[in-house]
Amino acid sequence: MTDRRAWEYCELRQEIAQGVMHRQYILFFCAGAPSEEITVTNRENAIAQLGLEGWEMVGTSGSFMHDSSGFRIFFKRLLDGTGE
Length: 84
Known about the structure:
Structural class: mainly beta
Strand order of the largest sheet: 3-2-1-5-4
Shape: elongated
Number of helices: 1
Order of helices and strands: EEEHEE
Low-confidence stretches: none
Oligomer: single chain
Mean pLDDT: 85
């Protein structure tokens, strides 16, 4: 049997330069369309809201350390009508 589930993806980005956070936002990715960006003012609230909307965290990249360039949290969720 072929797995016909399709996923959509987003990432929460925090951009840091010289130890100072410059901005944080969520990028939503859709195949065949430009990504959509939403500004985030509170990381914890944004993560909680993504969870309520069915997004599942699947990975991280980067660091919150002073000399870091930033941090990313990756999420996915099943597209409507493509799964179980």
